[in-house]
Design a protein that fits this description.
With 375 residues, the chain is of the alpha/beta class. Helix content is 34%, strand content 17%. The protein has eleven helices and 14 strands. The mean pLDDT is 97. This is Aminotransferase class III-fold pyridoxal phosphate-dependent enzyme.
């Protein structure tokens, strides 16, 4: 049997990793400034993380949600305390797509309606409703297009108000900083306007924090830069530092009932151990503060490079925009300078999503290589 060929692959085979350093099967060291789509939040093979998972595996790796699992409650309490979202309830699943799928489902249950407002260049996942709310027709099968989704421009107050007041909408789903789309953001005024109009029209506001959450922007959640309170918050990527885990935080105004949501693997013992380890490292090492500081330092360094047209994002969710497409630049960075970076729907944008414990010295190495590659 062969693999189903859906991924264009770089000719690199990583075999071990520590922090932001990755070694391939030939012994070559790479620096990881992308973290596998912002998944690696506390660095590869962090010793506390490894110890937590190993200890849990020695005891018990998995059982279903038909039994008591105190680790889930411990995680919910720690997450509520660190995020400032103690008035939400946690439902655990396995990925960002599944998180957004459940968020949209909850919104439809709650309102009794089905239409969704999403935004141009959004990316919310590849499952049925999540991919329908993703602004990329090429990854939507005909079965996905049965969903009723209206795509609007960010920061267009008039069109947003006209659309949401037309009726039939169950949810507005929004990224505070677009990931795959290219790091575009709503203004604070627009995000607050959305929140206000959702309340006025009994529409559920879903904050997609799958990529921007868990401290990546210097605050625990990116929506916290804007002073809003979403109804549902979706989380995943950095939550498990590589262990597949996701979830939604559901405001206490939503009432649960048995069977409303469900999952086989979500919230298993290993997922909880991984997620708790990430929160503990974020707290003990002050990584939210480091993300904010290193983001500022990155922007200062980037501002000195003439060929950079625009610097986008917050904290360590960053993008550098050029006036040329960056595919060749990424190849140079990986093959000539041994550094992983990321791309976006905006083909002129180079994405930078390192672990949150990155140092100034490592950022300096990145810019030294980048300047050489741009010559």
């Amino acid at each position: 049997m062969k693999l189903f060929d859906v991924y264009p692959l770089y000719d690199v085979t990583p075999v071990s990793a520590k922090g932001i350093e990755v070694w391939d099967d030939k012994g070559q060291k790479f620096l990881d400034f992308y973290g596998g789509h912002a998944v690696i939040s506390i660095g590869h093979s962090h010793p506390h993380y490894v110890k937590r998972i190993k200890n849990q595996l020695d005891k018990m790796g998995f059982y279903s949600n038909s039994i008591q699992n105190p680790l889930q409650q411990k995680l919910a309490e720690k997450l509520g305390q660190m995020s400032g979202c103690g008035d939400y309830a946690l439902f655990m699943c396995n990925s960002g797509a599944e998180a957004n799928e459940n968020a949209l489902k909850m919104a439809s249950f709650h309102t009794g309606t089905s239409k969704v407002i999403a935004f141009n260049n959004s990316f919310h996942g590849r499952t049925s409703a999540a991919v329908a709310a993703t602004d990329n027709p090429s990854i939507q099968a005909h079965i996905n297009k049965q969903q009723k989704v209206t795509f609007l421009s960010l920061n267009d107050f008039e069109t947003f108000e006209k659309t949401i007041t037309s009726g039939g909408y169950c949810a507005v789903i929004i990224e505070a900083i677009q990931g795959v789309g290219g790091l575009d953001e709503p203004t604070t005024e627009f995000y607050q306007f959305i929140a206000k109009k959702c309340k006025e029209n009994n529409v559920v506001l879903i904050a997609d924090e799958v990529q921007s959450g868990y401290g990546r922007t210097g605050k625990f959640f990116a929506f916290q830069h804007h002073g809003v309170q979403p109804d549902i918050i979706s989380i995943a990527k950095g939550m498990g530092n590589g262990f597949p885990v996701g979830g939604i935080l559901i405001h206490e105004s939503f009432k649960p009932s048995y069977g409303l949501l469900g999952t086989t693997f979500g919230g298993n013992h290993l997922a909880c151990a991984a997620s708790l380890a990430v929160l503990e490292v974020l707290e003990n090492e002050g990584l939210l503060e480091n993300a904010a500081k290193m983001g500022d330092y990155f922007k200062q360094k980037a501002a000195k490079i003439p060929k950079i047209r625009k610097i986008k994002g917050k904290g360590l969710m960053l993008g550098i925009e050029y006036d040329f497409e960056v595919a060749e630049l990424r190849k140079q960075m990986i093959y000539n300078h041994h550094m992983f970076t990321g791309s976006a729907k905006n083909k002129k944008l180079l994405r930078f999503l390192p672990a949150l414990n990155i140092t100034k010295e490592q950022i300096d190495e990145f810019f030294e290589a980048l300047q050489k590659a741009l010559q």
